[in-house]
Amino acid sequence: MDDPKTFTPIVAEYNSGQIEDGRLLFARPVTFMKSAVSLETLPPMGLTEVCFAGRSNVGKSTLINALTNQSGLARASNTPGRTQELNYFSAQDRLYLVDLPGYGYAKAPKHKIAAWNKLTRAFLRGRATLRRVFVLVDSRHGLMPVDQELMNMLDETAVTYQVVLTKADKLKKGQLARVHAETAKKLAKRPAAFPVVALTSADKGLGMPELRAEIASLALPIEAL
């Protein structure tokens, strides 16, 4: 078995055309569509969807704002559990971005947390247009048991997911490389895991062009509009 210290993660390489596709996808304002509080209130399935999942306070809203170049698009807060619905955003009518409620902790009554978790799991299990789940993980902490519980469910339902390490600027280069390798190694044998672990910092812009390019590769092509 490979030692995590020597494990070499797969690194995605994007050409200038792919980077430009990602830039163009988010060159115009991404628009808020609706908040869904039940399966019945979800938009009709049509466009490709990608969603962002992660433990409460992992930086989902901050990353979405940085990704879309819109500081107030997703509500960012230091209060865990702020996102309480499935929030839908449209990127040029080519793609839906979905911000999921944070999991693992929230300052809310237990019955509300249970309802959010039930809705999220039903959405992840039954949304045929969902192409990718971006599982955000704080690079300072790495994969936690609650992250792996979510990934177990995604493996079982064959929903492709990709881990995005957030707050990468908070670690020294050597520490970040170790966390990157350890995370990639843990994902290597998971059947539904996308093999590339993304490194990002919303504050510094690290990894944003590459993440935009990856998302653009999943979007409806411009010529199909």
From TrEMBL:
Tell me where on the tree of life, at the top rank, the source sits: Bacteria
An example of a Pfam family matching this protein is: MMR_HSR1
InterPro entries named in the record = G_ENGB_dom, GTP-bd, GTP-bd_ribosome_bio_YsxC, P-loop_NTPase
Alphabetical UniProt keywords: Cell cycle, Cell division, GTP-binding, Magnesium, Metal-binding, Nucleotide-binding, Septation
Q: Where is the EngB-type G domain?
A: 46-221
Record PROSITE patterns: G_ENGB
Asked if Zinc-finger is a keyword of the record, the answer is: no
Q: List required co-factors.
A: Mg(2+)
Please tell me whether the keyword Cell division is annotated for this protein. Answer: yes
Function, in words:
Necessary for normal cell division and for the maintenance of normal septation.
Please report the name of this protein according to its UniProt entry: Probable GTP-binding protein EngB
Species source reads: Algimonas ampicilliniresistens
Q: What is the lineage of its organism?
A: Bacteria, Pseudomonadati, Pseudomonadota, Alphaproteobacteria, Maricaulales
